[in-house]
Amino acid sequence: MSDRLNKDPFEVLGVSRGASDEEVKNAYRALARKYHPDNYENDNPLKDLANEKMQEINQAYDQIQQMRAENKDAYRGGGTYYENYSGSSSGAKDPIYAEVRNDINRRKFGDAERKLLDIDFASRVAEWHYLMSLVLMSRNNVGDAMRELEIACNMEPANPEYQKAKEMFNTNANGYGSTYYGSAGNTTYRRRNSTDDACDCCANLICLDCLCECMGGDLIACC
Amino acid sequence: MFGYVKPVPAELLVKEYEFYRAVYCGVCRSMKKHTGKLSNVLHSYDSVFLALVRMLYIPDSEIGAGKHRCIAHPIKRKTMLNTNDATDYTAKAFAILTYYKVRDDISDERLAKRMATAFLRPIFASAKNKAALKDIAALCEEKLSAITALEKAKCKSVDEPAKLFGEILGGIFAEGIDGDDKTILYTLGFHLGKFIYAADAAEDYEKDRASGSYNPYVEMYGGAELTDDNRATIKCALLLECRKIEGAVNLLPFGTHAIIENIINNIIYLGLPKRIEFLDKSECDGGKCERKAEI
Q1: Per the domain annotation, does B62 fall within a domain?
Q2: In this structure, what DSSP letter does residue A91 have?
Q3: Which of A142, A170, A180 sits opposite B269 (nearest CB)?
Q4: B25 lies in which domain range?
């Protein structure tokens, strides 16, 4: 029983963590057809095993649904930092990290942090720093979270999961102010079309000079 | 006090820039009125931001300007905002914050600075008495001493002390406003405070690393020299903080105050990122060369 609880729901359904809801549903349906009790007559010795399998996939499916629903709820409009946060299912070597990931998915950040802090200093691997950064981010400790993420990336530069998270933050940060006039990357001026080039400026000055001269003054002395 | 929260004037309309200057002078006049003649030597651009935000919460009829002389402009009369509730409040709140900041600094700085702060003490003692904003005073005292405690303990987190500073600014921004607006203003001040604390620490990195003074980033990076990647990470976190500020600013009740809206947008979208540009340059010694080209 406890063995089953610790299994990765995505692994059970045989889909990747990034799989779309549709893919997850299809995988679930296919497996459910396979293990359905109707396929196993009453006296079939495999009936119990199939039943167990069935329960396992039901549970996995529910778990994924729940995880995704929670993520959507919490991050409506706020980006989706956690949604695909655990790209490599093989990353969780130590069962404690699987537990922590589970806590994070269920948004029990306090539990996750306690478990992380219980791990002694020497055995804190890249994954520790990565998960810690997720916990810190949940508390809006962006500065500390970015530092932990940086350590994780430095320890395992090839890990796509950590890189992806870092990229997500970078994209969010680099987009800051990009829709505001005057910032780099946005060339449209807020009240005029993008025609205020040097020629325009000169033309305006000459006009102004003419106007001044009408009134007896002079703006540009040479013309 | 920090000089982090100011606009990029080149991107302001002239009328917006003039209004900004007028508010600056208005706050200065309020300081003279409430916190003593000498206190305005400590006037900073940061307080203008608070005054602008708080001006959204007073009746339009109270916002007016006139031409005046002052000690900094003895010859030419300048357009200055008449003091109103927003500038008065700003002057008092900043006087209290500065007073407690100075008082906290006395205990851990070198002799020259200690003399200077001791000299300023009576001004701020009176500022505090005159201002009589008890809640703000209690808040500043409590949080600043908590920050000092974290600094003494060589806290390895930038967010813990930054959050305390954020709570101070949050309290100052939201004081006396009720309802949803209180939440908006608190959030705005909170994240702005966090940004200022963290950016200040990032800017002082090299200096503090050399002198051995406390700096959260020095503790976090183990006193090593920052690489370009490290700087990019710090900058990313600061910009994410800006995002939170942006979220709060978007909810401010600008109404017909287009000038104030444009100045505030300029400050948060251009001013704040510009102020942390020193993180883009590796050889720039904490951005000191950037600072010369200021308003």
Answers
A1: yes
A2: G
A3: A180
A4: 9-283
| ipTM at complex level | 0.73
Q: Do the domain assignments include residue B58? A: yes
Spatial separation of the C-alpha atoms in residues B64 and A33, rounded to whole Å: 76
Here the CATH number for the domain that contains residue B76 is: 1.10.600.10
Copy the structure tokens of residue A169: 């933050």
Tell me the pLDDT tens digit for each residue of B48-103.
999 999 999 988 888 888 888 877 777 778 888 888 889 988 888 888 888 788 77
Cα Rg of chain B, angstroms: 19
Q: How many independent structural domains does chain B possess? A: 1
Nearest to B185 by CA among B198, B166, B161: B166
The listed range with the strongest mean pLDDT (B34-48, B81-95, B188-202, B235-249) is B188-202
Hey, are the CB atoms on B234 and A146 less than 8 Å from each other? yes
The pTM score is 0.69
Give chain B positions within 8 Å (CB) of A147. Answer: 158, 220-221, 233, 237
Only one residue has tokens 């400050």, namely: B267
Taking CB atoms and an 8 Å limit, are A180 and B265 in contact across chains?
Answer: yes
Question: Per the domain annotation, does B290 fall within a domain?
Answer: no
